[in-house]
Amino acid sequence: MAEPEDPESDPRWDAVRAAARRRVPTPPGLVERVLRAVARGRRTAVDVPGEAGRLRVTEGVVTRLARTIAAERAPDGVRVSAVAVEDDVVEVLVSVRFGVVADEAAEGLRRDVTAELARQLGTATTVNVHVVDVHPGRN
Fold first, then answer.
1. CA distances in angstroms from 28 to 1, 24, 25, 32, 80, listed in the order given
2. Whole-model pTM?
3. Which end of the chain is more exposed for a tag (fewer CB within 10 A), N or C?
């Protein structure tokens, strides 16, 4: 079996290196939102309807559930970097392997996580998937 070619030797990888040399400023308010989300880890994120009434599910539980679903459903070449609940929206950050069509991979993962959360929680949840990095390698 032939050894796979190193993706970093691909001439197209130069564009990724050039992008990596540019400093990208942290989006305004990102650090504050992340810190706020950590501090609110026990807030109720979802009220799940049931036969005996409503079950209150905390943000931390929704975050762990969404992280598990995202990791299981991530297509080949997509790594889940982080998951958080912010303002009742599940935010999933991913890294894609060089060569993966990022928009398609993110949209497919968003649909899968949204559908599975709705199935398990019995209520609609907004999910956003953000591609935040490109990585070389097999996965």
1. 49, 12, 8, 9, 23
2. 0.68
3. N
